[in-house]
Design a protein that fits this description.
The chain is of the alpha/beta class and 383 residues long. The protein has 3 domains: 1-79 and 156-165, THUMP domain-like (Alpha-Beta Plaits, 2-Layer Sandwich), CATH 3.30.70; 80-152, THUMP fold (2-Layer Sandwich); 174-382, Rossmann fold. It has 13 helices and 15 strands. It has helices at 19-34, 56-63, 83-94, 116-130, 184-193, 212-229, 240-249, 255-273, 293-300, 317-327, 330-333, 355-362, 367-376; strands at 2-9, 40-44, 47-51, 69-78, 99-107, 135-137, 144-150, 154-157, 161-162, 174-178, 198-205, 233-238, 279-280, 308-309, 379-382. The strands form 2 sheets. Strands 1, 2, 3, 4, 5, 6, 7, 8 and 9 form a 9-stranded mixed sheet that branches. Helix 3 (83-94) crosses helix 4, helix 7 packs antiparallel against helix 8 and helix 8 (255-273) crosses helix 13. 42% of the residues are buried.
């Protein structure tokens, strides 16, 4: 007998001949998540197992954040042929619980000497006879489900912890996330990463107008995302010179929009360097002046080779806040440290920009020199 974690996957079941590829990726990600806790990780008979973890509860919490994992159950593995021992272990597992329960048996081994209904009846009877009278059977609406899986061994568990689902990171390609210190962009990155996309983050830092606290806030957000993504690389791009020149040489109403266009150009340059196949932003239609449809069109125009993913494009702010709370980024995003988007904000930003005025402003800038310097001087942080 030994204690272990039984890890289930969900959507991967739908894959056909490509399923082994996705399973290898999932096992690799689970190994990365479980590595700090030691032990072994292996795939067997449509389950991923983890045994020997130094802190099984902490390991479970960490693995529940791995994209591709549907649920995790702390389980007992025991020799299936000794059915008396299986019943005894089932009874011990239910000790201390009160209310109603049922037994849910499944046989991967179809040659087992008992069928599933017989296993349910015998184990249920044993639990009732050897318990302390605090449990009753209710097969329709039980408060507790005692699961018994008959595979190469018998696996018993009564608690199942839901995980994040999705697909293993790396199976869906690679994309660059424009990561600010706000609420939206971490949520956008999470949503795309959940589909198996590996993230590279790009953050714009305008020191001394934005503080080191603001920079650390973004790195803390990236650290939270990295727990789901099993690591993330962050480019911290020096943006002060670009913002100063935009402020000095461009029409005031257009400074935010021109700044956004430069952000997109720099992000695409870094994305291509990192072999990314898309950009990701946290924009939502109409949320701020630079996110009107007319403004989004002008920022899209400067991205020459890659698609731009905006997973929050139709979300209300309250929906985004709720999502941020669920994934654990909201409190960090709410810290009162301003990012570069709040520097030199015009009083009346253009919401229906004219390309002629944008181009006139940008023609006053040495675009290639500014972008090249920003990319070359970016700080790279591996999380």
């Amino acid at each position: 007998m030994r204690k272990l974690l039984m890890v289930r996957y969900g959507e991967i079941y739908l894959k056909g001949l490509n399923r082994p590829y996705f399973l290898r990726a999932l096992v690799s990600r689970v190994k990365e998540a479980a590595r700090p806790f030691g032990g072994q990780v292996w795939l067997h008979d449509a389950r991923v197992f983890i045994s020997g973890a130094s802190d099984i509860d902490a390991c479970r919490e960490r693995v529940c954040k791995v994209f591709g994992v549907h649920s995790v159950a702390p389980a007992i593995e025991i020799e299936k042929d000794d059915f008396e021992a299986v019943c005894q272990q089932a009874s011990e597992l239910m000790q201390g619980l009160t209310g109603t329960f049922k037994v849910d048996a499944r046989r991967s081994d179809k040659h087992y000497f008992l069928e599933s209904p017989q296993i349910n009846a015998k184990i249920g009877e044993y639990v009732l006879e050897h318990g302390d009278g605090q449990l009753k059977v209710d097969v329709k609406h039980p408060e507790h489900i005692l699961s018994v899986e008959i595979r190469d061994q018998a696996y018993l568990y009564c608690r199942v912890y839901p995980a994040v689902g999705g697909m293993p990171v790396g199976t869906g390609g690679k994309a660059a996330l424009l990561l600010s210190g706000g609420i939206d962009s971490p949520v956008a990155g999470y949503m795309i990463a959940k589909r198996g996309v590996q993230l590279v983050a790009v953050h714009y830092h305008s020191f001394p107008y934005t503080s080191e606290f603001a920079k650390q806030k973004v790195l803390d957000l990236a650290k939270i995302l990295s727990e789901y993504c099993c690591g993330i690389k962050v480019y911290v791009v020096p943006f002060t010179d670009i913002q100063m020149q935009i402020h000095e040489k461009c029409p005031e109403d257009y400074t935010t929009l021109i700044m956004r266009r430069y952000m997109m150009r720099i992000a695409e340059r870094i994305a291509l360097k990192e072999e990314c196949m898309a950009l990701i932003t946290g924009e939502s239609v109409g949320q701020v002046a630079s996110q009107t449809i007319e403004a989004l069109v002008t920022t899209n125009q400067v991205v020459e080779e890659l698609p731009v993913f905006r997973p929050l494009i139709g979300f209300d702010k309250i929906d985004i806040i709720d999502y941020a709370k669920r994934i654990g980024t909201y409190d960090t995003s709410s810290l009162p440290y301003e990012d570069c988007c709040t520097v030199f904000t015009p009083r009346h930003p253009a919401t229906k920009p004219k390309m002629a005025l944008i181009e006139k402003g940008e023609n006053a800038l040495d675009q290639e020199a500014l972008i090249s310097a920003a990319v070359e001087n970016a700080e790279i942080v591996e999380l």
